[in-house]
Amino acid sequence: MRKNQMEKIIVLGGKGGVGKSSISAATAVRLSDLLPEKKILLISFDIAHNLTDLFNIEIGNKITPLSENLWAIEPDPNINAKKYTNNLITKLKALMKEMPIVGLIPQLETFVDTTFTADSIPLALKNAMFFQEILNAENEESMQFDIVIADFPPTGNMVALFEIPEDQVKVILKYSLNFYNSIKEAVREFSKLFRKLIKPFDDYEKRKELGKQIFHMLEELERRGERITELIHTIGSLRLVTIAEKPSFEEIKRARDLTSKYITLEGVHINLITPESKKCQYCNNIRSNQLTYVEEIRKEFNRLKIWESNRLEKEPFGLDGLKSLAYEVYGEDIKPDDILNPIS
Ligand SMILES: Nc1ncnc2c1ncn2[C@@H]1O[C@H](COP(=O)(O)OP(=O)(O)OP(=O)(O)O)[C@@H](O)[C@H]1O
Ligand SMILES: [Mg+2]
């Protein structure tokens, strides 16, 4: 059993290129400094992972230590989906073997292997399966984290990640049904041929047991989905990242509306604001235009925490770069709770 309950899941979303990954990483680094006794995990849910570049350490599909209490992972969603489909396939195959006629067709195994693959599962569902594995790691101590920070993909795919846990049983069932139908089609011809030659056998008890196991797998998936949804409702906190320009501002309004039933929106990051300059009048013009958007964004999201951050002279890379970005975003003497629970 878990020794300690997960405390917070911080999710960062927003339009492409606005600094979601950088701010996610900076937030994780800063929290890990402020809370040395907490275990923090940074997860990238973007297909184009870039944590490896950000930290300049090979990360990939394994929980990789970045400091004493900070880990990161760029999950390969296919691996979990494969685990799941392999298990399901094994049971389906066994079930079919026990069926009259069907089990006697030699080509069937290959057919099953090539029809029902992890590739046929939508990416968002694969990601959700992985997310669940992390959030549900009840038995493995190395997988238990106090705080999870998730760098999400731009809005459309982000919403899919929230939706899937509620819907996934339906999705899996749909795939299983398609799968069953393909099998039925394929065996129809064979059965015509064999019907007269072979007397079908039928081990009813065995079939019932296998059917039950498959049903339990789907049921377990549904229970997990419910738990994830509940967890995200209770300890999830969404922060939307934007730049001070119209398209990105429009995007976060849309994201707010689309995600409101899944997760509490607590803050908005206005990133990449052009700093004031003594020499560059052009920069100052851009800045003053941006500041009118900053005001609009503040008005629109007036009940939320708004963090403003200027464009740094150097792109924030590596632990030190990300620490500088964290100082830019959160200031020098912030308390961990101001980051974790900014509006409570
Ligand atoms: N405050 C900042 N100052 C300077 N550079 C920044 C700042 N924030 C982000 N950047 C740079 O802007 C670029 C985009 O940032 P990042 O990759 O974090 O955005 P993203 O929203 O995750 O993008 P994508 O949608 O492509 O995943 C990167 O090169 C990053 O180093
Ligand atoms: Mg990114």
Question: What features would you describe in this structure?
Answer:
With 344 residues, the protein is of the alpha/beta class. Helices cover 54% and strands 14% of the residues. It has helices at residues 20-34, 51-55, 77-97, 108-115, 123-135, 155-195, 204-235, 246-259, 281-300, 318-330, 336-340; strands at 8-14, 40-44, 64-67, 70-73, 147-151, 236-243, 264-273, 305-310. The chain has an eight-stranded mixed sheet with strand order 3-4-2-5-1-6-7-8, with helices on both faces. A hairpin with a 2-residue loop joins β3 (64-67) and β4 (70-73). α3 (77-97) runs antiparallel to α7, α4 runs antiparallel to α6 and α6 crosses α8 (246-259). The protein is elongated, with a radius of gyration of 25 Å. The model is unreliable at 197-201 (pLDDT under 50).
Please name the defining characteristics of this protein.
alpha/beta, 14% strand, 344 residues, binds adenosine-5'-triphosphate
Number of strands: 8
What binds here, in terms of ligands, is: adenosine-5'-triphosphate, magnesium ion
In the sheet with the most strands, the strands line up as 3-4-2-5-1-6-7-8
Mean pLDDT: 83
Q: What series of H and E elements makes up the topology?
A: EHEHEEHHHEHHEHEHEHH
Distance between the termini: 30 Å
| Number of helical segments with 4 or more residues | 11
- Gyration radius over CA: 25 Å
Q: Helical proportion?
A: 40-55%
Low-pLDDT regions:
197-201
The biggest sheet, with number of strands, parallel, antiparallel or mixed sense and barrel status, is: 8 strands, mixed
Categorize the overall geometry. elongated
| Oligomerization state | single chain
Give me the secondary-structure category. Answer: alpha/beta
| Proportion of strand residues | 5-15%
